[in-house]
Amino acid sequence: MPWGINFGGGVNSTALVLICHDIGLKPDWIVFSDTGSERPETYANVRRVESFCKAVGFPFEITRWIRKDGTFESVHDNCLRTNYLPSKAYGYSGCTFKWKIQPLQRWRKVHGFNPSGIAIGYDAGETRRLQNAAKRMCQDTERDSDETVWYPLAAWGVDRVNCVRRIIDQGWSPSKSACFCCPSAKPDEWELLGAEYPELLKICEEIQDAAKCAGHADTKTLFRSYDPNAAHCVCTADGCLIHDETGAA
After folding, report:
1. What is the CATH number of domain 3-169?
2. What residue spans in the chain does CATH classification 3.40.50.620 cover?
3. What is the pTM of this model?
């Protein structure tokens, strides 16, 4: 059976690609499902891994969720158009299915990789995540019946620390993969987003405001325990990008 790597653009899937090359294990495909709303450092890492794959002879493709009218719409643009927060704010995982799982399923079918094994980068330290994944596989009717999911990092005993070490050994900087508008972000991650990419934090504020005005965020919030209006400066540059509560830079 052919197999490939569901490349998320973050630490674990990057380490998985590198380790597979280290041990001479070549996948039949590596696919990154682009949400259109990844953080800039994630896109930088995707380009870096894509270049690496081309250099060593590994396949690498990028796919996207395409609407019925043939156009692409990012997660954040979809939120702004519909006046809803990302689905995780409401306790659902529609973002993952629409922008990650569905495009990969479609790509595999179009390119003849059905059935196929799918390697996902859960590491050996993610016991709860692995257990939850096993439960979902038994209950999830949205997943393709012709796919066999595999967690090689966990099988090989590779934990997060080893993933980070392998990336650093490559001379790269580890970077977490996540949409910049993800409700799962922690307060310090929101503050860092504002410090590094204030224009992206502004988009998140627009999403929150639009959903609230439409009555879709009365009890839910994009920021959870974070208040962008009361953010402390966390930048290390000469020019401050986040104002403190006093409004002083």
Report:
1. 3.40.50.620
2. 3-169
3. 0.86
